Amino acid sequence: MDDFFAEGAFVASVACYALAALGCFYALAAIWAANRFVRSVPHRDLTSCPPVTILKPLHGIEPNLYDNLVCFCRQDYPSPVQIVFGVSDLADPAINIVRKIVAEFPDRDIKLVINSRRHGSNRKVSNLINMMSEARHDVLIISDSDISVDPDYVQGIAATLAGSDVGLVTCLYRGVAQTGLWAKFAGAAIDYHFLPSVLVGLMLGLAEPCFGSTIAIRRQTLAAIGGLQTVADQLADDYALGAAVRRAGLRVAIPARVVGHDCTQASALDLFRHELRWARTIRSIDAIGFVGTAVTHALPLALLGLLLGGMNIFALLVPAAFLCRSALQMEFDRAFQLRRRFYWLGPVRDILSFLIFVASFFGRDVEWRGHRYGVQPDNTLACYGEVET
């Protein structure tokens, strides 16, 4: 019996080392993909500047909410830009932030929609559907409340959407950590796990993403795919919109720009809940692809191989994985002008990501905006009630 367990541990160790070796190649591929992405020339059709409506669904106060909303009011764009903010609760404290912005930017076309009507289990999409009645322009840009952008953002998005075969434009995003260690861990997960995996997936033709950071779409395209109502019960509503556009024979374009995503996690529990929801969302979209992301966890897998198999020649993969992951962090810092300098906590971040990856296979429930949901086999949501705090 002891021999049986020893042999099983050795086989498992070799499997872990094999995946870690693939993870080293993956890290090198991610470095190459990042440099290729930042060197690509963005589409610049400066003759196409149609009027734009920006839709910003809100829910409660976030630490940097005012600054994140104001940057959309400071866009350098020659055509009219309407901004529609929306909340579902008359008592939502975000209303005061919007009213402050309206007072500070009287020359901007800003509308606040307060409507509690529900159209499905996805509360953000319900909010967006309620906001659509006030949208005046044919080009719509939907962006989450925790996103920050540069002044030329609308210009770049509108120029990309002008392509004849483009049905939707979305953007990659980087982590912008607010104060605190856990927020920095959350930002590092975006910068050193999310960004590399998406870039490698795009390079290999394995990823078809669409992100809530930016969803730019023409009104007629949205109508042609059935409108926002078609994703009112979806957990990954952004991905579902992108998939619908692709099924309609149009392209989802990703310009060579990266927007900021605020990370405000104040505790280990906040971090765990957020990233577990994230992982289970990805798993619900593409289970096989999600399993394949095991190779992105090179260092934890190498350490697990060492634990199971003891010291042998394969143990050299531990320092190799560490070096490859460190190189990935340094190159992404340089390529995307990040200033995280997270190297000394990089191995801890990698181990945390691996533990959340494993935990994501045990259950389908997620916690989102203070509510607990069950993810059904068709990726729709069933609300189980509010989260106990």
Topology:
Blueprint lengths: L1 H38 L12 E6 L7 H9 L7 E7 L6 H11 L4 E6 L8 H9 L7 E4 L4 E2 L4 H9 L4 E4 L2 E6 L3 H24 L10 E4 H6 L12 H11 L3 E3 L4 E6 L4 H18 L1 H6 L5 H12 L7 H19 L10 H14 L5 E4 L2 E5 L5 E6 L3
Parallel strand pairs: 1-2, 1-4, 2-3, 6-9, 7-10
Antiparallel strand pairs: 4-8, 5-10, 6-8, 11-12, 12-13
Helix pairs in contact: 1-6, 1-11, 1-12, 2-3, 6-9, 6-13, 9-13, 11-12, 11-13
Description of the molecule:
The structure is a single chain. By secondary structure, this protein is an alpha/beta fold. The protein has helices at residues 2-39, 65-73, 94-104, 123-131, 153-161, 181-204, 219-224, 237-247, 268-285, 287-292, 298-309, 317-335, 346-359; strands at 52-57, 81-87, 109-114, 139-142, 147-148, 166-169, 172-177, 215-218, 251-253, 258-263, 365-368, 371-375, 381-386. The longest helix is centred in the N-terminal third of the chain and has 38 residues, at 2-39.
Largest sheet, in brief, is: 7 strands, mixed
Instruction: Please list the strands of the largest sheet in the order they lie side by side.
Output: 3-2-1-4-8-6-9
Specify the structural class: alpha/beta
| Fraction in beta strands | 15-25%
Provide the succession of SSEs. HEHEHEHEEHEEHEHHEEHHHHHEEE
Radius of gyration over alpha carbons? Answer: 22 Å
**CATH architect. name of the domain at 43-278:** Alpha-Beta Complex
Number of discrete helical segments: 13
Task: State mean pLDDT (0 to 100 scale).
Answer: 89
What is the CATH third-level topology name of the domain at 43-278?
Spore Coat Polysaccharide Biosynthesis Protein SpsA, Chain A
Identify the overall geometry.
Answer: elongated
Number of strands: 13
Low-confidence stretches: none
- Kindly, what is the distance between the CA atoms of the first and last residues, rounded to a whole number of angstroms? 47 Å
Estimated helix fraction: 40-55%
Provide the CATH top-level class of the domain at 43-278: Alpha Beta
User: So, the CATH homologous superfamily of the domain at 43-278?
Assistant: Spore Coat Polysaccharide Biosynthesis Protein SpsA, Chain A
